[in-house]
Amino acid sequence: MRVAIVFSVLLGLAGCTAPGPRAAWPPERLAAHRVVLLGEVHDNKDGHAGRLAALTRAVVGGWRPALAMEQFDRERQGALDAARPRCGRDPDCVIRAGLGDDVAPAASGWDWTLYRPLVALALDYDLPIVAANLSRADAARLMREGVAPVLGDAWAARLAEPPAELVAAQRREVEAGHCGKLPAAVVARMADAQIARDAVMAAIVDAYAARGVALIAGNGHVRRDVGVPRWLSAKALSVGYVEEAAAPGAFDVAVAIAPQPRPDPCAAFR
User: Fold this and answer.
1) Where would I find the Haem-binding uptake Tiki superfamily ChaN domain in this sequence (predicted)?
2) CA-based nearest residue to 110, from 133, 129, 140
3) More confident site: 85 or 262
């Protein structure tokens, strides 16, 4: 039980690794792109506010993308769709449906005060809300049992031999994101789960590319070098909202945001 809890916590942190280089937000509309990947540092309110403002300007200007959200697990799509007629413009009603009756928003692992405005925007402009994440339960099972039992044989074949440089990069990200305190075997399994999560997100985004789609996800997921773009069929614009410099080329656009004060993330590993 203790190991399962640790894995759950660690999986929740995956995909939230170091962001890329700073740059100014470009003036052109997001609507010029069919697929946009909008990153975040999960607890940075300034980044959330800036992303919401950019997305709102594009939607008010006529863009009507589906809103694919990491915050909802893929198996909740049916519940999200069923909730729309009865929820009307009540974002809290939709959030509860997307999480499930047995999951309180406060206990979901997400700060819904930061994501509620995105759900409200989707409801106000009748944008599809897409559940885009591989759940923590599926990711933990994938770490234990492999890809095939969780995603099926086709996915197992697709993910059987990911590029060696991608595997190495993901392992470095997982190791750095956990302060170098994880055993090598755990790092390897977590990297495999992260690669699978990005590939699944990419497939979901691709399914909505024809109509237009904006992915809302952590910076680690929208990075060009290690994230969702590695698996996309559609051409996409990757936008990171970043607190500090990292590898050049991680994003097409990097929007500088003020660092959020937070405790030492490595303290828990000591």
Assistant:
1) 28-232
2) 133
3) 85
